[in-house]
Design brief:
heterodimer; A: alpha+beta; 7-stranded antiparallel β-sheet; 3-stranded mixed β-sheet; 5 helices; 11 strands; about 25% helix; disordered C terminus; B: mainly beta; 6-stranded antiparallel β-sheet; 4-stranded antiparallel β-sheet; 7 helices; globular; disordered N terminus; EMC1 (chain B); membrane (chain B); endoplasmic reticulum (chain B); Beta-prop_EMC1_1st (chain B)
Chain lengths: ~250, ~900
């Protein structure tokens, strides 16, 4: 995590957070703000808006800018400003009446470079305002994409997530967001593992197959059969009763 | 050597676990009913006098034969679903039943005796128009089939006619212009002659014309209210002859299109010259064409008469007229007779019931063919016995004061005593009767819950809008209720609002009927035990309904509250008493619901406000250009999970992720190319809209069948690359520690669960899938899989476990995990319905019984099959051959032995003390 104060920006201190998809992580120094659609290598940015009102009517305001980068290594970072005094008070009031804190991002595609990257409509998610306050603005925002790189959903949770009714006295705790941001592409479901199974079967087959198959029944037990037959023949010759192979064996 | 042995032990134990039905158990716990659907064509077997067979072709593409005395199915042929198997026409002659199938694709001849196929011929391309037998000199040798090849011809309606000659006539009409008559030669199919007749008033020859008498075409014109006659075989240029209805003193009802009905008893002979003219919905006249072929005589006026038909045997012809009391709307009436004029009639009514009537109007049998298309069903517990209910009722009523309470108690005791005496008397009375005469008939009055709650009431909703109450033990229909004015494209949702558990209040079911196109809905509230409509007035629903949800909130009468969300996101509660509204206001902030618009790929969540309006709180959008939502499934609300986790080989516990709000959303790609097609499985929390997991099955295509239960999702799809069916299982675990072990809240579960997945090859396509359900969830789960062959496979969930190891280790052996094998076996002893196949299984319904080991199963489709399954065998039931004598004698022996030894020990102690 990097927290880099800069004066060149509007007025605010920008704690930045970033994160990764797969093994890729990037650091945002806060130099790029939400200035619309650049189509250059550095990706593009979309606004992240939030709304928290005592009367629960959504009025979305700017919270920060999401810096998205498509392509093979999808990455996302967020630059956001601090909450103002007024916002902090509102947030506390909303938390007191168990209101909701909502965020939204516009629907965008990470892959289409030029045309129609932006579609109409927003993706919305919410968290209870009290849990946001009690967690001292530590939230985890997750963006979900589909197979072709469209953003399909956003989710926000706070850690910890519970509302225990503890008062947050220190105003400083509610100034800056401590955001963890991830972008999750779909996972590929596994196919049936036929190759591995066949390999395993072959190994097992080799292990126990060889010694058993070669010897026939007679080859294995000739040392018992031959004396038995000899014995039967001899007893049969003595007995003269003619029936007797089986009976002879018994006696 | 130890590894193979352990493998063997596992497989052996599986073999022991799997069970099949013994021969003497067949039909003991299960029953099957076979149906055919709505009749399109019906014929009586007129080949021999003594025969009592009926032949039916139905809208479900079935050709079937019934015993006309009992209504039992003799045999049936189930053809393909959809237009490929549609039966265009069924004609019967002698022992041959000829059938044109699949829009004129095939011509089949069946042997009516055994139901075997004589021959089948593939016809030339073209859509089917008409067919008839062609006979020469009393022998029927040919069948003429008229088909339309392409759109070249400009005729719009046709009639084929042959009157026992070597020519076949085809009549075609160009609407409001002229009629063309073409005669074909029977030998080579060549056109012999072709003539054209001016007929500017005629628009369709099929609907307004019939052939009667010696080849006279009779048409009716609704505009001028006149009959027209035309001799078809006339040599000279023929002309229509007009006869005004007024001249016959006939009057057509206002706005009614007159209809003609005629009959041709034998293909070798001309049609009879008598015919019916329908003048109004309930008004028919029997008319006769005189021998001159131009004048008409009125024979008799029938009013009211809704249905008419002709039947002929030998030289006699019977005309049948029906005046049904109910709104029996459309028909197939047929008849047959012995030497005297005797007849039987088969009536198909609007509610898809098939009724067979003997001459004096006696109903011989009725088949409820609506049950061939069950849409949804529920199983409801039966009420307690009368006496129990009576006693409960005394407590249920509000009592005031001590004295009335005592009186009530006394009166209920008296009632109990009375019932007991009656029971004793009945026992005594029945004991005197010879065995076997004691009837055990199930009627609504004698219905009561059995000891283990194994007998339930099956409430079935059919596509025709008829509701049925069926006893699950015997399969007998106990009540039926026909809902009129149900649109053919209606969708139904059956909700049990109050079970039988709250005695003085009757159980209550609500059926939500929604028109698919307009979204307008209506509610039908009824008592599921007796089928009677409830006196509670359902709310009026002026706006289209998007979603319905049953809340766990109950009103003062113990009915669960049903919330209906309309297209303006306003909520209607039913019942909406003051009490309910107050409760809703209190709970509003914790009532969340979701809406899915699959056409826009939009999933959104809402929260209820105190004023019963709603606010949108989350939104997930799956772009429809990429994938479309095909199915969404939550978990069943009555499902119990007994164990919170799984004990692993190293004795640690892997906790299950048991989110009751989890939705499984299945999507299919819009791109159908085998290489790029995919199936998506999304697990979304229904409260927060959080995507818990998103898996993509590449190179896969639907139809996807899936089951979502406990902490797992099982889905089946078609692998386009390997061209086979595959099963995949997803299981969700919280890990070795629970975040909050006391309560689950979607709002407070910040960590995503671990997801395990494994995929297997399944050697058969499937039609439907469901999981077993038991009272407490202790019994292991099985998947019930309906196969296209009609078999129902009970597949142990153990085989669909993503933790099946590739390589067997000590730990996995400890856990009893089966080593991974890519192919899922199908064992015939897993078929729960042995040889009782269920044709075209559409759905499987499972319900818990009072016994933990037993799950009740109903499979429905064309047939209905009910049985019980025991996924972990009957661990809570003593076997039939349990040795009671041995166990009790051992107990007694031990008891006496302790008594005696105690006595001896006392004596010994005493003796020692004296010493």
């Amino acid at each position: 995590m990097a927290s880099v104060p800069r004066l060149c920006l509007l007025l605010s201190i920008i704690p930045t957070i970033l994160i990764l998809c797969a093994d890729f992580a990037c650091c945002n120094t806060g130099r790029k703000t939400g200035d619309g659609l650049d189509t250059d290598f550095s990706g593009f940015s979309v606004p992240l808006e939030h709304s928290f009102e005592v009367d629960d009517v959504s009025r979305f305001r700017m919270r920060g800018a999401l810096q998205l980068r498509g392509g093979r290594e999808t990455s996302v970072s967020l630059s956001q400003s601090q909450l103002s005094e007024e916002d902090r008070n509102t947030l506390k009031e909303v938390a007191a009446v168990d209101g909701l804190y909502k965020i939204r991002v516009p629907r965008v595609s990470l892959t289409d470079r030029q045309t129609e990257r932006q579609m109409d409509g927003y993706l919305t998610a919410f968290v209870r305002a009290c849990s946001l306050v009690e967690s001292h603005l530590s939230d985890v925002i997750t963006l979900h994409t589909d197979v072709s790189g469209y953003l399909i959903g956003v989710s926000i949770v706070t850690i910890p997530g519970a509302c225990r009714g503890t008062e947050v006295e220190d105003e400083v705790d509610l100034e800056a967001f401590n955001t963890t941001l991830t972008i999750i592409p779909p996972t590929n479901a596994p196919q049936p593992e036929t190759a591995l199974f066949i390999e395993r079967m072959d190994i097992e087959h080799e292990k126990r197959g060889k010694p058993q198959e070669q010897k026939s029944f007679f080859a294995k037990y000739w040392m018992y059969i031959v004396p038995l037959v000899l014995f039967l023949m001899m007893s049969g010759a003595q007995d003269q009763s003619g029936g007797g192979a089986a009976n002879g064996g018994g006696r | 050597m130890s590894k193979p042995t352990s493998l063997f032990v596992i497989f052996f134990s599986l073999f022991i676990m799997s069970e099949a039905v013994f021969e003497d158990q067949v039909g003991k716990f299960d029953w099957r009913q076979q149906y055919v659907g709505k009749t399109l064509f019906a014929h009586f077997d007129s080949h021999s006098q003594s025969s009592n067979k009926l032949f039916l072709a139905t809208d479900k593409n079935i050709f079937a034969s019934f015993n006309s005395r009992t209504g039992d199915l003799l045999w049936r042929h189930v053809d393909k679903v959809g237009p490929e198997g549609t039966i265009d026409i069924l004609v019967l002659h002698g022992q041959d039943a000829l059938m044109v199938v699949g829009g004129g694709r095939l011509l089949r001849s069946w042997d009516t005796n055994m139901g075997g196929l004589n021959w089948e011929a593939v016809l030339d391309t073209g859509s089917f128009q008409a067919a008839c037998f062609v006979a020469i000199q009393d022998t029927v040798k040919h069948v003429a089939v008229l088909k339309k090849a392409g759109t070249v011809r400009h005729w719009f309606s046709y009639l084929v006619y042959s009157g026992g000659e070597v020519e076949v006539y085809v009549l075609g009409v160009v609407p409001n212009s002229h009629l063309t008559i073409i005669a074909y030669s029977l030998e080579d199919g060549e056109i012999i002659k072709q003539r054209s007749v001016e007929a500017p008033w005629l628009s369709s020859v099929e609907s307004s014309c019939v052939v009667i008498g010696q080849g006279v075409l009779m048409c009716v014109d609704p505009a001028t209210l006149a009959l027209y006659t035309l001799p078809i075989q006339a040599e000279e240029a023929p002309q229509f002859n007009q006869i005004l209805l007024q001249s016959l003193d006939l009057e057509v009802s206002l706005g009614f299109q007159p209809v003609l009905v005629s009959s041709q008893p034998h293909p070798a002979r001309s049609p009879i010259s008598e015919f019916f003219l329908q003048l109004g919905p309930d008004h028919h006249v029997l008319l006769q064409l005189n021998a001159d072929g131009y004048t008409i005589a009125a024979l008799r006026d029938f009013q009211p008469a809704f249905l008419v038909s002709f039947a002929t045997t030998g030289e006699k012809t019977v005309a049948v007229v029906m005046t049904p009391k109910n709104e029996t709307l459309y028909v197939h009436a047929f008849l047959k007779k012995d030497d005297s004029v005797d007849y039987r009639v088969l009536v198909q009514t609007q509610d898809h019931a098939l009724t067979f009537i003997q001459q004096p109007g006696r109903v011989v049998w009725t088949r409820e063919e609506a049950l061939a298309d069950v849409v949804t069903m529920e199983m409801v517990d039966l009420p307690l016995t009368g006496t129990q209910a009576e006693l409960e009722g005394e407590f249920g009523k509000k009592a005031d004061g001590l004295f009335p309470m005592v009186l009530k108690r006394l009166s209920s005791q008296v009632i109990l005593l009375q019932a007991w005496l009656a029971h004793l008397w009945k026992l005594f009375y029945e004991a005197r009767k010879p065995h076997g005469q004691v009837k055990n008939e199930v009627t609504i009055e004698t219905l009561s819950r059995d000891e283990f709650n194994l007998q339930k009431m099956m409430v079935m909703v059919t596509a025709s809008g008829k509701l049925f109450g069926i006893d699950s033990k015997s399969g007998s229909i106990l009540w039926k209720h026909y809902l009129e004015n149900v649109q053919p494209n209606a969708v139904f949702k059956l909700i049990v609002q109050r079970t039988t558990a709250h005695f003085p209040h009757p159980p209550q079911c609500t059926l939500l009927i929604k028109d698919k196109d307009t979204g307008l809905a209506s509610l039908h509230v009824f008592n599921p035990i007796f089928g009677r409509k409830s006196h509670i007035a359902p709310p009026a629903l002026p706006r289209p309904i998007l979603q319905s949800l049953l809340l766990p909130v109950i009103d003062q009468d113990y009915a669960k509250v049903l919330l209906l969300v309309d297209d303006q996101y306003k909520v209607t509660a039913f019942p909406s008493t003051k009490n309910v509204l107050q409760q809703l206001q209190e709970m509003a902030s914790s009532i969340f619901f979701y809406l899915i618009r699959s056409d826009q790929g939009n999933l959104s969540g809402f929260r209820l406000r105190k004023d019963l309006s709603t606010e949108r709180i989350w939104e997930v959008v799956l772009p429809t250009e990429v994938q479309k939502i095909v199915a969404v499934n939550g978990k069943r609300p009555n499902e119990h999970v007994h164990s919170q986790g799984r004990v692993m080989g190293d004795r640690s516990v892997l906790y299950k992720y048991l989110n009751p709000n989890l939705l499984a959303v299945v999507t299919e790609s819009t791109d159908a190319h085998p290489e790029r097609a995919f199936v998506g499985v999304f697990l979304v929390d229904g409260v927060t809209g959080r995507i818990i997991h998103e898996a993509v099955q590449r190179k896969a295509r639907g139809p996807v069948h899936f089951v979502h239960s406990e902490n797992w999702v099982v889905y089946e799809y078609w692998n386009t690359k390997s061209r086979r069916n595959e099963f995949s299982v997803l299981e969700l675990f919280e890990g070795t520690e629970l975040y909050n072990s006391t309560v689950f809240s979607s709002l407070d579960r910040p960590h995503l669960p671990q997801v395990l997945q494994q995929t297997y090859i399944f050697p058969s396509p499937i039609t439907t899938m469901e999981a077993t359900l038991t009272e407490k969830g202790i019994t292991s789960r099985h998947l019930l899989v309906g196969l296209p062959s009609g078999a129902i496979l009970s597949l142990p969930k153990m085989f669909l476990d993503p933790r099946r190891p590739e390589v067997v280790t000590e730990h996995s052996r400890e856990e009893n995990l089966i080593p991974y094998a890519p192919e899922m076996p199908i064992r015939t002893e897993w078929f729960i319905n042995y040889n009782q196949t269920v044709a075209r299984v559409k759905g499987i319904y499972t319900a818990p019984s009072g016994l933990e080991s037993t799950c009740l199963v109903v499979a429905y489709g064309l047939d209905i099959y009910q049985t019980r399954v025991y996924p972990s065998k009957q661990f809570d039931v003593l076997k039939d051959d349990y040795d009671y004598v041995l166990i009790s004698s051992v107990l007694f022996a031990l008891f006496f032995a302790t008594m005696i030894s105690k006595r001896l020990a006392q004596v010994k102690l005493l003796n020692r003390a004296w010493r």
